[in-house]
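Below sits my pick:
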Amino acid sequence: MSSSTPSTPLTPPTPPTSSTAGTPLRPPLPPFTEETARAKVQAAEDAWNSRDPDRVALAYTEDSVWRNRDRFLTGRAEIRAFLADKWTRELDYRLRKELWSYTGNRISVRFEYEWHDATGQWWRSHGNEQWEFAPDGLMHRREASINDIPLTEPERRLRTP
């Protein structure tokens, strides 16, 4: 067999690093498997535990829609401002998320986090979130129902390592 070009071994295509709109992809991407849904939940837990509003806000689309308790937010800028304010009031915040279910481009989680206010009162906040993702892996919609209970120091379960 003769050819004018040398043969090269077949290599798998390199995954794209940005969407067609030019924004960076945020893997894992939908549709989710159990493994990728768990990875997405862990990535969210890690980011939120950083308490860095800029880092966390980058996980959401520019036009992301949120319901957080009784607050309704639209867009990454509002989300970032909300998170910056949250972590000035919710001190020593520590979060745990657990995958509840997943399908296609949606994930549901249960969560709890502990924090204290400026008076030193500890709280445990717990609830459920439903997430919907864009094809690029950024979260397009977040619905969060959250309840708070006061804690004493010995009742705390989540401590910073």
